[in-house]
Amino acid sequence: MITPVKQINRFFLLTTGPLIGMLIALFISGAAIEWNRAPHSITHDADVFQTTASISEGLSKAEKDAKTTISSIRQTAELYQKTTQTMSTIVKTAKTTATKPESIYNRRITSKLGSPFETIQSDRIRIELYKINPGTYRGYAMKIRLKSPDAMKMTLGKDHVGGAETTKQAVQRHGAVAGINAGGFADSRGERYPLSTTILNGQYVNGFEPTYKDLFFVGLNRSGQLVGGKFQNKASLDKLQPKFGASFVPILLQNGVKLQIPPKWKTSPLRAPRTVIGNYKDDQLLVLVVDGDNEKGRSGATLEELQNKLWKMGVQDAYNLDGGGSSSLIVNGRVVNKPSDGALRPVPTHFLFFK
């Protein structure tokens, strides 16, 4: 792709090329002049005088043309330099202007979170950690800007189907800077298996399973954007090009609209520790991890409370991940939340974030 500055360079090369070529031709022609050394005679002297005068006149004209050409080249070079500087300024201004809407939007959504108590910054990711305490529950919000799609990954417990490990173990083993628990699971014969459709590294772990009841799939596509929803056939999910993802229940928001929460999940349990993931219009991610004392429904947050909170914060799509004793938030090697089991629970899938 030819940038504005490169286009200007090409223009001035085309402009000065013929002038430089004329100078070279003059020098070559001058070097090729040969003097007539025939015997002296009046006629010959007159011819020599006339030839010399003609050559002198030609050289004078060439000198004048050369001076004019040099002056023209100098002026062209000065104009080129000024134009290049002007174009560089224009490009710089354009870049600054282009980022203004993004900055304004980011300030607007950040203002609803307050001030971060911890920030992680690299050329791949930016993480801001906030405390949330609306009065009825306490927890944490983690706003994430993925500057590179590979700054977020999903892992299986101990890297095999049926394996389980705590989110902290997964974070440490893979060298991540942060991590949360991901999808739901089912236990069988001492092993812990991911629930329903699960994708890892672009491949289906146990094949595709059509969405049923209140289940959904949520993950990241190849461009680093959050994708999710209910899918009745594999082709409809494949169109989104998911790189990884897991399944659980239910969907809270879709395209900025509150979805009806199934009655079962409103009361079973009423309150609980929760882990929720969502996205903003600019593809930043937001994770909420809410604390609770147990899984008996007396502490933590209701799904309706989190749904309303996320909607007021401007989140577009939001998905409730596994909660209760599974809720985990690890940042910089430490457990940030207070697991309701008193210790982290081993789970089969984790969403990890990398510097």
Explain the overall architecture.
The chain has 355 residues and is an alpha+beta fold. The chain folds into two domains: 4-100; 112-353, no CATH class. The chain has six helices and 20 strands. It has an eight-stranded antiparallel beta sheet with strand order 1-2-3-16-15-17-13-14, covered by helices on one side. The chain has a five-stranded antiparallel beta sheet with strand order 4-20-5-18-19, with helices on one face. Strands 11-10-12 form a three-stranded antiparallel beta sheet, with no helix packed on it. Strand 8 and strand 9 form a beta hairpin. Helix 1 (4-31) packs antiparallel against helix 2. The longest helix has 70 residues, at 42-111. The chain crosses the membrane at residues 12-33. Residues 174-354 form the Phosphodiester glycosidase domain. Pfam families: NAGPA.
Count of helical stretches: 6
Helix content: 25-40%
Largest sheet: 8 strands, antiparallel
Structural class: alpha+beta
Low-confidence stretches at least 5 residues in length (pLDDT < 50)? 31-41
The ordered string of helix (H) and strand (E) elements is HHEEEEHEEEEEEEHEEEHEEHEEEE
Q: How large, in whole angstroms, is the Cα Rg? A: 36 Å
Task: State the total count of DSSP E strands.
Answer: 20
Mean pLDDT: 87
Shape descriptor reads elongated
What is the first-to-last residue Cα distance? Answer: 31 Å
Walk across the major sheet and give the strand order: 1-2-3-16-15-17-13-14
Number of domains: 2
State which percent range the strand residues make up.
25-35%
